[in-house]
Amino acid sequence: METDLQAIEVMPAVVAALREALGPRVVQLPHEFAGRHHADASRMPCAEPIALVRPGSTEEVSVALRICHAHRQPVVTQGGLTGLAGGACLLGGEIALSLERMRGIEHVDAVSATMIVLAGTPLQMVQEAADAAGFLFPLDLGARGSCSIGGNLATNAGGNRVIKYGMMREQVLDVEAVLADGSVVGGLHGMIKNNTGYDLRNLLVGSEGTLAIITRVVLRLRPKPSAVSTAFCGLPSYEAVTTLLSRAQAMLPAGVSAFEVMWPSYYDFYTGRLPELRAPLAGKHAFYVLLESLGADPERQAESFEGFLGAMLEEGVVEDAALASSESDALAFWAVRDAPGENARLLPGRVSFDVSFAIAEVGEAARRCEAALRARWPRANVLVYGHLGDGNVHIVVQEPDWPSTTAREVQDVVYGVTGEMKGSVSAEHGIGTKRMHVLGLTRTPVEIAAMKAIRVALDPLGILNPGKLFS
Amino acid sequence: METDLQAIEVMPAVVAALREALGPRVVQLPHEFAGRHHADASRMPCAEPIALVRPGSTEEVSVALRICHAHRQPVVTQGGLTGLAGGACLLGGEIALSLERMRGIEHVDAVSATMIVLAGTPLQMVQEAADAAGFLFPLDLGARGSCSIGGNLATNAGGNRVIKYGMMREQVLDVEAVLADGSVVGGLHGMIKNNTGYDLRNLLVGSEGTLAIITRVVLRLRPKPSAVSTAFCGLPSYEAVTTLLSRAQAMLPAGVSAFEVMWPSYYDFYTGRLPELRAPLAGKHAFYVLLESLGADPERQAESFEGFLGAMLEEGVVEDAALASSESDALAFWAVRDAPGENARLLPGRVSFDVSFAIAEVGEAARRCEAALRARWPRANVLVYGHLGDGNVHIVVQEPDWPSTTAREVQDVVYGVTGEMKGSVSAEHGIGTKRMHVLGLTRTPVEIAAMKAIRVALDPLGILNPGKLFS
């Protein structure tokens, strides 16, 4: 009892006000959450919050922000802490507002193919609820078990099947969110088309916790595919890669659901280091592509997918191809593409990039980056791979025993090429704190000024995730 | 010479400054554009502009806005003047800025499947350029020959194939635009994924000329479909309609590219009044659906489409169906759906609506509207039809010799139901001036306040399309 009173006596006024309004179950003090992990997966530095607020409802989020607003108290919203840009990390002096208690599926409308969920719901729970209702929720990424829908929205998450289904912003029909002053926007509308003023939904999606706290959303569900065709192809040139992409998009009846490209450095590295990987192809090629088509007609689709691959082999677009004849084949192909999941073990101290370009430019951009990196660091691992159908390429650079200053030099090389070739310094991971210094390579000063004006308009006191995105 | 001097003497200072900076070819005075039509297709009132500015480049748009900004001069941006909400109409005292001289395709990138076009380019010119390059530009609407890409973006245009390809916002990768003070945003990036700060592109799309003037855009092209399957179906109930929709989405290999629903009042009215229409079905049904699937595999698709229809007939979801066996059959089916093109002649003085709901709610919403309208005006024509796959329904209400006050009463009925059932008062046409009085039925006061704050942030002097969207 005495300890508690002591704690309350030294409490900042804003924490005392929050605790009084929301109670000790919602508002925890540092000694109550001791040992809790606060950082996201970005490896960026992270401070301790002055209090942890875990609201159970939109109303409680609103009360919390109203109080923080009155005290000009900075707030960092946290979801599953799987972000890769430091957007959820604490810089010091903030309150952490976690949506972990706001999880659950509130409503499934099987006729409209929509679902209302709380923002703290893990992605995998949404995928499973969609599946149980006979639908597909198509967004998918490695962190599915921990990442939350609210975090997926705040960062506009991507993943493997963006080429067919779009990014997170394409999966959401409406958002309910609490603005900095505690007021609530969003009516949880379930209609697909709604041209009534500015697109607040798309403004909040991808805003990385700086404009509002998303509390509930209406998600769009898709028909569950009944046919999967998967192939692993070896190709002679980047030109052949883009030809295969456009032919597949034009000729496959169900379209393309994944088009994952791996450069030889990537393929050789992982198939050499990970003995459990079954190399899908016997020979060596200039490029490797995992091609997938998700459709609705198992019998006819298998026939036309095989016919398509035959035509591409005959034409020389593809040099060699392995067609998955079972689910385990397909899983073996995906294992090659998912090998970077082992990076923490295989490539300590690596520097990673998530850049994008017009599809026609990706080959040249990657060539320039690789050449510059190898010229400067001849013994480094330089692994290139990505979602080519979206123009999105990941580059991983590593050498054991690099001094700590090398990361910045490696960034200068890759971001330099990205800026020169009009690419994006973040295709799908966001800016957070990790990429703030390179935002200006993709966005002009006028654009950043416009973003700042919008931020000030919606959060005049600057309490939502200050120090993130831009300062 | 003397006339010119006189005209210049009475010219407002802002017009004189514009004329001096941009010349008489770009800046025209009222006596020089006498007889020109300024109103859009909304039938809303429209004043004369104090000057007409027709820039030929982004730079000239920027100069024009810099001058207007310095003089606090209101500006209305105009495209093809085919809008249906009055967004391009003049309220009095504005300068009209027309993008008619900024037309043309600047660049086609066949590898990235993108195209850079000037905002004043007519939609049809874009469709034709895409076709010539071996692609499809999927947005399509009746005004294709006159409407401009910039206007399509400003209103986030929809149309018939939204269910497969999305609305205008899904067709654009980046926009270049001039802000109220003349500064230019947008780098004409050609990448699909770009998570670098706020989504300015989606904020400008649908903002109806109130936030910026879009000058150039990077459009996304799609593979040209090689197979078209079309059927006209009669169904027994709204439940059967939504069942057909979800089955078609799950079972048709190429998915659904159009799902146009016509209520019996619609079908009977047009097939009765337009002798050139060939009624696709012999009998009467509770609902009619035009179903289309665009795909890539002509042979196998025809087979599976026919198999699907057979299964739906057997199950009783569909009572009767006509399958198009030729392009002329398909055109005859579409003619029934396109019959409202004759409304100006057939239904003078009509009141039209463009509302949307969650798909599961459309049947009940339409039933309530029809019942209320028929109870109040038993002799009125009440025609209901729409893009049901998007939850979007159009309602046309008309009775000859109605007093002019009736329109507002009819609106009260339909918008009343829309508000009650959490629908949108504008699914695809926008707000403009025509629907400003009902914006509050779909958007909350907090949302409208947030929109106003954003508008003030980007256009502090309020010179861009004042009096539109909200005041």
UniProtKB/TrEMBL annotation, chains A, B:
Carries keyword Ribosomal protein?
A: no
Q: Which cofactor does it need?
A: FAD
Q: Which UniProt keywords apply?
A: FAD, Flavoprotein, Oxidoreductase
The family database entries (InterPro entries) matched by this protein are listed as: FAD-bd_oxidored_4_C, FAD-bd_PCMH, FAD-bd_PCMH-like_sf, FAD-bd_PCMH_sub2, FAD-linked_Oxase-like_C, FAD-oxidored/transferase_4, Oxid_FAD_bind_N, Vanillyl_alc_oxidase_C-sub2
Q: Could you tell me which Pfam families the record lists for this protein?
A: FAD-oxidase_C (PF02913), FAD_binding_4 (PF01565)
Note the PANTHER family from the entry.
Answer: D-2-HYDROXYGLUTARATE DEHYDROGENASE, MITOCHONDRIAL
Belongs to which family? Answer: Belongs to the FAD-binding oxidoreductase/transferase type 4 family.
User: What region holds the FAD-binding PCMH-type domain?
Assistant: 45-224
Top-level taxonomy: Bacteria, Pseudomonadati, Pseudomonadota, Betaproteobacteria, Burkholderiales
Organism source for this protein?
Variovorax rhizosphaerae
**What is this protein's name?**
FAD-binding oxidoreductase
